[in-house]
């Protein structure tokens, strides 16, 4: 994983992600090139997503690695990323598959309301200026009975960044009828190394 100065998790919102796109997949949990890391994410995703073919909205999809796993599990995916270079790499990765990749803002993605069964977001929500407002808007994109799948955390020691699980679950309570937190810090295969910070997934049904 990259150092805190360059890793997407700890980068400033104004980071030039077009410039970062070429090397983005070099990180184990980004490109999922290591078979064990890829399998670890695929196994987790299978438990978070519906057991039947569903419409998944992957916001801040980056180069499309999680989108690809979702498609391989039988889902239809719409990915959105604000970086044209990231979106282009995602399109190439998902070419010929039931997926659409759009360039746009994750906070207000260029999609219609109540179209999706899942809103999937990894390491994006913490960096938004108003995560509560983003969640309220994303809630409108879900069909009745849909779900949020949010992978987040808190990284760093001297100047930690991120969103604690307790805060995220509190934000979701008015929007969801069931909220489940799954700790991810102790699964080194997901990250390609041992980690000692807070990493987790929240699955919230609306």
TrEMBL record:
Keyword terms, alphabetized: Methyltransferase, S-adenosyl-L-methionine, Transferase
Output the GO biological process annotations, alphabetical, semicolon-separated.
methylation
Top-level taxonomic group: Bacteria
Keyword rRNA processing in record: no
| CDD domains given in the database record | AdoMet_MTases
Q: What is its EC number?
A: 2.1.1.222, 2.1.1.64
Per UniProt, residues of the Methyltransferase type domain are 57-150
- Molecular function as annotated in GO: 2-polyprenyl-6-hydroxyphenol methylase activity; 3-demethylubiquinol 3-O-methyltransferase activity
Q: Which InterPro entries match?
A: Methyltransf_11 (IPR013216), SAM-dependent_MTases_sf (IPR029063)
Question: What PANTHER family does its record include?
Answer: METHYLTRANSFERASE, UBIQUINONE BIOSYNTHESIS O-METHYLTRANSFERASE, MITOCHONDRIAL
Recorded protein name is Class I SAM-dependent methyltransferase
């Amino acid at each position: 994983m990259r150092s805190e100065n360059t890793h997407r998790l700890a980068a400033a919102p104004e980071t030039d992600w077009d410039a970062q796109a070429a090397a983005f997949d070099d990180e184990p949990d980004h490109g999922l090139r290591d078979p064990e890391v890829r399998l670890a994410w695929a196994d987790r995703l299978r438990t978070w997503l519906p057991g039947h073919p569903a419409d998944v909205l992957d916001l801040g999809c980056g180069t499309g690695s999680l989108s690809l796993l979702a498609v391989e599990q039988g889902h239809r995916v719409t990915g959105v990323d604000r970086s044209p270079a990231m979106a282009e790499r995602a399109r190439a990765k998902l070419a010929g598959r039931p997926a659409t990749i759009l360039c746009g803002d994750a906070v207000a993605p260029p999609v219609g309301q109540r179209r999706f069964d899942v809103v999937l977001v990894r390491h994006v929500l913490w960096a938004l200026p108003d995560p509560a407002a983003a969640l309220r808007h994303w809630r409108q994109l879900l069909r009745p009975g849909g779900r949020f799948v949010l992978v987040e955390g808190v990284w760093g020691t001297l100047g930690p960044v991120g969103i604690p699980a307790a805060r995220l679950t509190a934000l979701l309570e008015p929007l969801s009828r069931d909220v489940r937190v799954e700790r991810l810090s102790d699964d080194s295969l997901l990250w390609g190394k041992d980690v000692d910070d807070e990493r987790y997934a929240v699955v919230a049904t609306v």
